[in-house]
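Before the break, one more example. Copy the sequence into your notebook; we will annotate it together after we see the structure.
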Amino acid sequence: MSQITNLSVSDGQNFQLALQSKSSTLNFVIIAPFAAFQMVWNAFNFFYKSVRDNIVDLAVCVTETTYLRAVEEKLKKSIDKKAQL
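Here is what the structure looks like once it is written out:
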């Protein structure tokens, strides 16, 4: 059984734990729960914002189209009235 002579922990996005023994060096990279949660949260936000932006764009297009159709109808009526005079 080997004895641990050095234990180092580095702080960062990914929690890294390195164990060094007399016989060999063991390196472990452990993704801490907060880092995994952060990755999932970032992915969720990316897709949410993409969908939200697309829905907003669609709503703006529908609103503009509806407005332009109303303006077009008013112009047609105005032209028809002037043509009748």
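Confidence is low (pLDDT under 50) at residues 13-17, 23-28. The helical segments are 33-84. Try to locate both features in your own notes.
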